[in-house]
Amino acid sequence: MKTWDLDPLFPGFDSKEFKTTLNTIESLIEQALTFVERLKTTDDAKDKIKQYLSLNADLRHHMIRAFGFVNLTMATNALDDEANGWMNHMQQLSSKTTPFSTAFSKWLPKVENLDNLIQSDETLHEHAFYLKSIVDRAQYVLSEKEEALISKLTQTGSSAWGQLQGLLTSTLKTTFDGKTVTLTDLRNKAHHQDQKVRKQAYEAELKAYESIEQSVASALNSIKGEVNEITALRGFDSALDEAVYDSRMKRETLDALIESMRDHLPLFRQYLKRKASLLGHKNGLPWYDLFAPLGKSETTFSIEEAMDYVVKNFRSFGDDLADLAKRSYDESWIDFTPRDGKRGGAFCFNIHPLKQSRILTNFEGSFSNVITLAHELGHAYHGDRIFKESILNASYTMPVAETASTLCETIVKKAALNDAKGDEQLFILEQSLMGTTQVIVDIMSRFIFEKNVFEARKKTPLSAKRLKSMMVEAQKEAYGDGLDQENLHPYMWVNKGHYYRGSLSFYNFPYAFGLLFAKGIYAQYQKKGASFVEDIDTLLQKTGKMTVEDVAQLIGVDVTKRAFWDESLNVIKEEIDLFLSLTA
């Protein structure tokens, strides 16, 4: 077991460094609230804007460190009472900054010569996109009192409900094969070689959810209800419209993406039905065999072997990427293995003040785990590129957030596929298609489900029974006859943490965007070679200060048109055609 090292953040909650940082945050908040008094007129506008940028950057620097330490501690020990207490304290501190940002967002649009001021000063010019975004966002900002109230209420509202879902799913245990196991242990058995084990684990997983379904349903209802109310109050037509706006993305871009995905669903169903046939099923693939391995691979990976494999293949793309991955291991950025109280899944947290990242995985040695590791290291690489920007220009949005991660997945998958032969080649190809199907087809089901939940929640709270029914209907719509309609997964809404973030709705379509955008980038990289890596690095670095569409234009791509998405999906079609040919 190899765990991450959080000492570069803080040695502990009782350390002098942590206490000093909290005192600094308190002092900066006082300065910020005093600064608000200067915003009664637009006199000395340039000076006031520069002061705001400086204060905000300092606040963000220290808040990221403190919040990061608390969050990362809780991620590996959900029952840590001290961390939970500090999380509540940090949320209170964060809410105190609301009048500062709200007042400035109300004041900045009143500055008549803003464009000229931006052009006349180096610091303002560097933050031109950031400042203009504040002006544009002002139309959706409420009064200072309303924003302060919302900030405080969400602490005991959506944020608390989200923490409850995380606590329940990370501590849920059941008996399997005579042993007490966690939810993560059960879900990892979906990749087991033995169909009997996969089916029993699936059934045990569904049974285990019964004990928490009512509580998690309450969490989901409360979060979606809160978001609906605040979204309407701000003037958005729907939570989806707000999610697209917050993504710095045009609705026509999302529509083009979703349209293309829908039209290509039959392609994925061909793959699923062929896999079902190979596994002895006649009515489509049952959910418990969705992640069943095909072909044969004797390869299992230790942590060290997985890192060596990833670093070697990253090296074929560029030394910077490979060196970053090696550094993440050497400096203990990664918490690898599952244990009691540790949350499931995987994530990467970029820490701008340290110019480092921290990565959580639940590694157990499979090739799929290796791909997950490559994916999260891609996020760290994105962070490394954007650390070159100021901290205020380092916040990129959901769709582009998955670009580097998916690109790094692709690098490793392609290398593995090129090296393999026979059953090993089939195994790796199918592993790739398995992941791609999740990102296109399952993401479609999640998008449909969340959209329907938001609409239904406007009228009434939704029972666990209804949520299960809505999840199954969304899966049927997305997967069609590719899956066995009698063996779906009605509880997928329980274990996906993305549904439980009040400040971040629809964290599903960005994965599809990232996959297909990365496929298009990788295709260009294959044509142009090493010289194109610099263009990719520039694209990643600028994601914090451009719209999605402008970022894509850096490499000559128009993401508002279906043509790009169709071309990327055709790359996947080639892989599915190869799979169908190999298994004919």
Supply the CATH class of the domain at 16-156.
Answer: Mainly Alpha
Number of strands: 5
- Globular, elongated, flat, extended or rod-shaped: what is the shape? globular
Q: Poorly predicted ranges (pLDDT <50, ≥5 residues)?
A: none
What class do helices, strands and sheet pairing give?
mainly alpha
How far from one another are the termini? 42 Å
Average pLDDT figure:
94
Fraction of residues in H or I helices: 55-70%
CATH architecture of the domain at 16-156: Up-down Bundle
Distinct helical segment count? 27
Kindly report the spatial arrangement of strands forming the biggest sheet.
3-5-4
% residues in beta strands: under 5%
Radius of gyration: 24 Å
The biggest beta sheet, please? 3 strands, mixed
CATH topology term of the domain at 16-156: Butyryl-CoA Dehydrogenase, subunit A, domain 3
CATH homologous superfamily label of the domain at 16-156 = Oligopeptidase f, N-terminal domain
Q: Classify the oligomer.
A: single chain
Describe it.
This protein has a domain of about 140 residues: Butyryl-CoA Dehydrogenase, subunit A, domain 3 (Up-down Bundle). Helix 8 packs parallel to helix 9, helix 9 packs antiparallel against helix 12 and helix 16 packs across helix 18. The chain is about 65% helix and about 5% strand. The two termini are about 40 Å apart. Strands 3-5-4 form a three-stranded mixed β-sheet, sandwiched between helices. A two-stranded antiparallel sheet has the order 1-2. The protein is mainly alpha-helical and about 575 residues long. The radius of gyration is 24 Å and the shape is globular.
